[in-house]
Amino acid sequence: MIGALRSTVGVVSVGAALPERVVSNEEISRRVDTSDAWIVERTGIHERRVAADDEFVADLGARAAEQALDRSGLAPADIDLVVCATTSPDNFFPAAAVTIAERVGCHSAGAYDLAAACSGFSYAVAQAVSQLQSGLAQHALVVGSDTLTKVIDPDDRGTCILFGDGAGAVVLAAGAGPETTVGVELGADGSGAEHLFVRALAPGGKFMEMNGREVFKFGARVMVDSIERVTRACGLAPADVDWIVPHQANRRIIDHAVKKLGVEPDRVLMNLDRYANTSAGSIPIALEEAWADGRVQRGQSVLMIGFGGGLTWGSCLLPWAGNGPDGGPA
Ligand code: UT7
């Protein structure tokens, strides 16, 4: 699915929540046959955050959501829709989004989870944009939260080095700013399902299984293709975008895209060195960091691009329409 439309929908605020516990490459290399040097060279990751045993997707998601909501200047009752992108929820049901809505006081919102693995945040933003654009909702809270370390075999060096836990959230609003072109591209290729999965009720192991090389090739390809397609649909070139916020999977995948697309590296947000791949959380966590240090400013365009299990991918291009970190206009 691909499309672009003139819209007043924009991002008005962002929040993030990370577990306290830091796990270094060195700590991992005490358990499995790997090394800090190998992990840094092949992925760019130095450390990640790992949720406590009693800390789940809804806990991190609610913290991120509360921060985004506070920064939006809206009341919880103003939120019409809470969507939580996750593929590691605490429960099959109730949805994590319902727990999050309850904790942050969004009692008049519809709330549901959306499962598209590491593309989940892009998918959830696309959903929210559609509902805001149609007039069904005025304000939406979109959360990306995952605790994939809970479904990773700590003895599998192919996966345990790559993932961390965390959550991010944005508030999107209709009428948030002047009309701009908003673009979305979503894709799914189930023929690649075997390359990255975690079983639920189906018989088999309880841990993530991944063919790293295949996912790497897929990620490198779709990151470039999807950014090209969504920008073209909006009548832009990739270099015209102010901020590209890629899923934080592997530094080499992002570097490849930067080179292929001819975009300025400092316009592409990256924080995987400290948080690794937090799945549906990675895009809003990176956006939050760039907003908090004043880089992302009102009126600038933000292109979020995710890819992962499914295999799926998703890009959303929309404006930052909120205040800066000092509370005043950015
Ligand atoms: O959201 C999407 C989630 N998934 C991803 O984004 C994963 C994308 N894939 C990757 O990031 C990379 O494929 C990995 C980081 C997982 C692996 O890096 P790679 O450069 O593709 O390594 P490789 O699988 O081609 O393996 C190269 C060598 C192999 O040894 P031999 O056969 O050449 O002797 C592996 O056995 O590196 C070995 N190896 C390791 N060595 C030390 C694989 N994992 C490790 C490790 N430490 N953790």
Helix/strand layout:
Elements: E1 2-7, E2 10-17, E3 21-24, H1 25-29, H2 36-43, E4 47-50, H3 57-72, E5 81-85, H4 96-104, E6 110-114, H5 120-134, E7 139-146, E8 166-173, E9 180-188, E10 196-197, E11 209-210, H6 212-233, E12 243-246, H7 251-261, H8 272-275, H9 282-292, E13 301-308, E14 312-319
Parallel strand pairs: 5-6, 5-7, 12-13
Antiparallel strand pairs: 1-9, 2-8, 3-4, 7-8, 9-14, 10-11, 13-14
Helix pairs in contact: 3-4, 6-7
Describe what you observe in this structure.
This protein is of the alpha+beta class. The protein folds into 2 domains: 7-173, Peroxisomal Thiolase, Chain A, domain 1 (3-Layer(aba) Sandwich), CATH 3.40.47.10; 180-319, Peroxisomal Thiolase, Chain A, domain 1 (3-Layer(aba) Sandwich), CATH 3.40.47.10. Helices cover 31% and strands 25% of the residues. The protein has 9 helices and 14 strands. It has helices at residues 25-29, 36-43, 57-72, 96-104, 120-134, 212-233, 251-261, 272-275, 282-292, and strands at residues 2-7, 10-17, 21-24, 47-50, 81-85, 110-114, 139-146, 166-173, 180-188, 196-197, 209-210, 243-246, 301-308, 312-319. The strands form 4 sheets. Strands 1-9-14-13-12 form a 5-stranded mixed beta sheet, sandwiched between helices. The chain has a 5-stranded mixed beta sheet with strand order 2-8-7-5-6, sandwiched between helices. A two-stranded antiparallel sheet has the order 3-4. Strand 13 and strand 14 (312-319) form a beta hairpin. The longest helix is centred in the last third of the chain and has 22 residues, at 212-233. It is globular, with a radius of gyration of 18 Å. The model has no long low-confidence stretch (mean pLDDT 97).
